[in-house]
Specification:
The structure is a single chain. The protein has 194 residues and is α/β, with parallel strands linked by helices. The protein has 10 helices and 5 strands; from the N terminus they run E-H-E-H-H-H-H-E-H-E-H-H-H-E-H. It folds into 2 domains: 114 residues, Rossmann fold, CATH 3.40.50.300; 72 residues, P-loop containing nucleotide triphosphate hydrolases (Rossmann fold, 3-Layer(aba) Sandwich), CATH 3.40.50.300. The protein starts with a strand and ends with a helix.
Length: 194
């Protein structure tokens, strides 16, 4: 079974993925793949440099993520340019990793921007980790040390809560305790594997 897992920044999607992994799911993480496809020496990084210039590299030749982030998270047009480079490369890696799994495996594709890419209908189920925006902002301020402006800007750059909920076959509420979250994830896992 192919499952898409998504949620906005600071929703707890990574925690949900880890619980699913503990329960036996195979997790294919879009964030990890998005980093891999633009590592030093990759064609992906070459394409990003061609589009954004050498200023987005560190002195060692790695991608300077904070510098690139400052460019794309405040400019929708530039963000689309980046996504047009990275998304096809990530989906190519997804397909290769999925092909290596067994026929009875529950394969969870951890895709932060699933609602934005319009690919939700390619999955047997879509899990959306849902948290009110204000809770997400509080988490970013507390856990990541971001400013309110940075947090609001990141939220504004992603799909709205309503857009994510519209693609959900299963909603995982993460506004409660860790135990409540685990219980809900276990419930969804059981539904998907029986």
């Amino acid at each position: 079974m192919r499952v898409g897992l998504t949620g906005g920044v600071a929703s707890g999607k990574s925690t949900v993925a880890e619980i699913l992994r503990e329960l036996g799911a195979t997790i294919i993480d879009g964030d990890v793949l998005a980093r891999e496809v633009v590592e030093k020496g990759t064609p992906g990084l070459d394409q990003v440099v061609e589009a954004f210039g050498r200023d987005i590299l560190t002195p060692d030749g790695d991608l300077d993520r904070p510098r690139l982030g400052a460019i794309v998270f405040n400019d929708a047009e530039r963000r689309q340019v980046l996504e047009s480079i990275v998304h096809p490369l990530v989906f190519e890696r997804y397909a290769a990793l999925e092909a290596a799994t067994g026929p009875d495996d529950l394969v969870v594709h951890d895709i932060p921007l699933l609602a934005e890419t319009g690919r939700a209908d390619g999955f047997d189920a879509v899990l959306v980790v849902d948290v009110p925006d204000e809770v997400r902002i509080e988490r970013m301020l507390r856990d990541r040390g971001w400013t309110r402006e940075d947090a609001e800007s990141r939220i504004a750059s992603q799909a709205t809560r309503e857009q994510r909920l519209a693609i959900a076959t299963h909603v995982i509420d993460n506004a409660g305790t860790r135990d409540e979250l685990r219980a809900r994830v276990e419930q969804v896992f059981a539904e998907l594997t029986t």
